[in-house]
Amino acid sequence: MLTIYDFKAVANNQSEFDFAQLQNKTLLIVNTASKCGFTPQYDDLEKLYQQYKDSGLVVIGFPCDQFAHQEPGSDADIAEYCRVNHGVTFPLMSKIDVNGKNTHPVFAWLKEQASGKLGSSIKWNFTKFLVEKDGLTVHRYAPTESPLALIPKLQEVL
């Protein structure tokens, strides 16, 4: 049976990002965009990361341009925007697709583990997936759900 730790991705700096390095960590994986009404969630995602990283939380952002082209920049542009405007220090991956024939394998797996209220496809930016330390248990949260609303669940699973 596959776990999140079996996957790899390309980090924003074009290096390989192996999820195996995150064994026994709790992961919050989010499809992100810089020009979205939910973009201010970057601030709260960073707050969660700073508050809980020493307890084993890793926030991972996957930029995506599939929703109204709200992530048009290059990987370098995205990284600079996130750092300068939102103080992001958590890992950012290279821009990906989260739906359709080019869906990144990480998101194909996440959607299989935790479908949404209206089916498994991702409906918008800032859909959040909380993966517990076992690498198998996945909780899905809608874009409208504030990252800070996840604190009780984080405290339960960390």
TrEMBL record:
It comes from Sphaerochaeta associata. Keywords: Oxidoreductase, Peroxidase. Belongs to the glutathione peroxidase family. Coiled coil: none annotated. SUPFAM superfamilies: Thioredoxin-like. PANTHER family: GLUTATHIONE PEROXIDASE. Pfam families: GSHPx. GO terms for molecular function: peroxidase activity. It comes from the Bacteria. This is Glutathione peroxidase.
